[in-house]
Amino acid sequence: MKQIQIISSLLIFVQVINCDPVTFAQVVQSFNTKANATGVKLKSSLDFLVKISEKARFIKAFNMRDVPLFTTREEREEVLAEVLKRTTVNGMNATDFLRKEIISIDFDQTQTITQLKEDIIKGLNFAAPSKYDVEFGGSFDHSFNEWHVKRAKKSEAQNVKDKLNVMIKQDTKLKERFDTLATEITELSFKLNHVGINECSSKLNSLLTEILPAGKIATIKTVVKQFTEIKNNQAMKMRHMQEMKHTLSRYNVQRTIWARFIIGLEKTPRLA
Question: What residues form DSSP beta bridges with 89?
Answer without folding.
Answer: 92
